[in-house]
Amino acid sequence: MERRVLKTSSTFSPEAIDAIQERAKLGRYMIRGYGALRNVPRFDDLLFLTASLTRLPLEGYREKCTTKIVLGTRHAKRPMELEIPITIAGMSFGALSRNAKVGLGKAATLLGTSTTTGDGGMLADEREASTKLVYQCLPSRYGFNPRDLKKADAIEIVIGQGAKPGGGGLLLGQKVNQVVAGMRTLPEGVDQRSPCRHPDWIGPDDLRIKIEELREATDWEIPIYVKMGATRVKDDVKLAVKSGADVIVLDGMEGGTAATQSIFQEHSGIPTLPALVQAVEALQEIGVYGQVQLVISGGIRSGPDVAKALALGADAVSIGTASLIAMGCNKPIYLEDYQKLGTEPHHCHHCHTGLCPVGIATQDEALMERLPIEQATIHVANYLQALVMEVQSLARACGKSDVHNLEREDLVALTLEASAMAKLPLAGTDFIMGR
Amino acid sequence: MKEPSVSEQTIVHEVTLDCAPLSTREINQQLKALAAEGLQTINILNPAGRHNLAVGVTEPVKIQFQGPVGSYCGGLAENVNLEIFGACGWSLGENLMLGDILVHGHASSNAGASAHGGTIRILGNAGPRAGISLKGATLLVTGNVGYGAAFMMQQGCLIVCGNVGPNLADSIYDGSIFVGGAVDSLGADARFEPLSEADWNLLTRELAAVGLVAQDYDFKKVVCAKELYHFKAKDWAKWKDAY
């Protein structure tokens, strides 16, 4: 029999064909959880130039290498003091189960770092579990109230998210049970929209007044972060600083979500790597670098990711999806439940269905029982600890006694794209793409 | 020791605060401190359109502003009783949890934005987006309101005695809206509904509180049509402008 090589169209690839036929079936855009599936230039495309003869390294895991960071030093009487430069990103109770939220809080507490609420307000159990809790002020204001505001250790005004900048949010009805609906003042079971604009202010001049309102309501005690999805980073960062932000939280397009239109995940925003570089430049250009802290998020997975972010100028990173994976997201257990969703472990992005096989992104009591809080806590705490040890290892190898002493000079780029975006020399050359 | 007379007790429970020499921080600090001490009434002079006055006050206290206030007056407050003799800036009573706000004048954009509880009464007009994201409070406007009123309203009641601008109640989830004048247009998933006896009783009660008679108006009721509650976009005509 003659052997034939099947030809695949690059334009109408199998994925493109599936997507067309899915649209033809649904009559609407596709909705899913997780972040961008496409490959983008990322921290993997950078390498450390660790010490040799020209730089003196520190001993691997014995010599002191500090990790503390203070966020919100600009105006707050009580800035956020963190033991490690890794925080837990805002993820809502509603999108996540109670057990997941409490596990994140307990793990963050064990490591001396902060966790963040999310759309839908502050869960009492989450507040109790977290010694350092950032209270998000989102466009929906679901569950937002002055009582919880006064219990917060910081406020994060959410302008947008890396997975869907400008796109608002969704929580499909299967997750809007009685408790979630009650917290959000919504009818039970409704497919809920989180608005893309705040109800009470529109532009940066209004934001300045809004920030003053939050400061007055909290007696200028706690810092105010402004979180944005990475798009026009330089202008956005400068405007947020002008509006009074103490901390900029910038979320690149690799950032996750519980549900949004997949077109946003794949076709909006810019990757975390160039977003970070532009944000640092913006802060430097207006002379506030070091006064206004920068937290970067979106696709952070490993100690090297964290270390590279710090070397490029971030004060801390924030992790969301990776902390859920540490808990067991996409773990190869309960295989039949993955298959019921039409997926497999390592490929699941079905957070929006509320049928999370491992009990993380669900409000179903039976599924939630698959995630004991103690187990979630230990796994996330272990993961955070491992990240910190990896960052310290790289910092020591670069001769730094504090992880924040990592610097751009410690890095080179492995690809032309990364060289252009990070403005770093291509490995083994003096060539910086675009310079 | 002689017991204080009723008039003396009243004097003890009232304080006048002049904003002119004070920073916003100082004004709010003093308001909170006085409210915490149990002062019943605080009279504010020279507010001069300043933003963020009486923000985050959660003690039961009556505060009277003798002049116009800026944005966010009474924002993030609970249990307060505010009376404003003048106009208001943006986002009056934003996220109010409980209490009463009475405005003798006009209010700008976003009046009552995301207010969870209490009653806000505006004896004048309100700008665009009045009652946006309303979560349970009652917002009464005796004059007209602009476009986008009650956008994404979740619960509560918006009463407008005059006319409303375009896109009233766009993407509303729940709650009731009553309009005594003309409705320019409804937003996505909003519909008219006949008024019930209970509705007229509510309107009679709410309007009587500001010296008006409900029956003098041709009230129309707007509620959520609940056709976009679930994300089924097969009916293109409904969804094309909605999402």
Provide an overview of this structure:
The complex is a heterodimer of chains A (435) and B (243). Chain A is α/β, with parallel strands linked by helices. Chain A has helices spanning 14-26, 98-111, 124-129, 146-149, 178-184, 204-217, 233-242, 262-267, 272-285, 303-311, 321-327, 335-340, 365-368, 373-397, 416-422, and strands at 31-32, 46-48, 69-71, 80-82, 86-88, 115-116, 133-137, 154-158, 169-171, 192-194, 224-229, 247-251, 260-261, 293-297, 316-319, 411-413. The mean pLDDT of chain A is 95. Chain B has 243 residues and is α/β, with parallel strands linked by helices. Chain B has helices spanning 6-12, 24-36, 197-208, 236-239, and strands spanning 14-18, 41-45, 62-66, 78-84, 98-103, 119-122, 135-141, 155-160, 176-179, 190-193, 220-224. In chain B, helix 2 (24-36) links the parallel strand 1 (14-18) and strand 2. The radius of gyration of chain B is 20 Å and the shape is elongated. The model of chain B has no long low-confidence stretch (mean pLDDT 92). Chain A binds chain B through residues 26-28, 31, 140-141, 144-147, 149-150, 170, 172-173, 184-187, 189-191, 193, 195, 199-201, 206, 209-210, 212-214, 216-220, and chain B through 24-25, 28-29, 32, 51-52, 55-56, 58, 70-72, 75-78, 90-91, 94-95, 97, 110, 113-114, 116, 129, 132-133, 135-136, 151-152, 154-155, 171, 173-174, 229-231, 233-234, 236, 239.
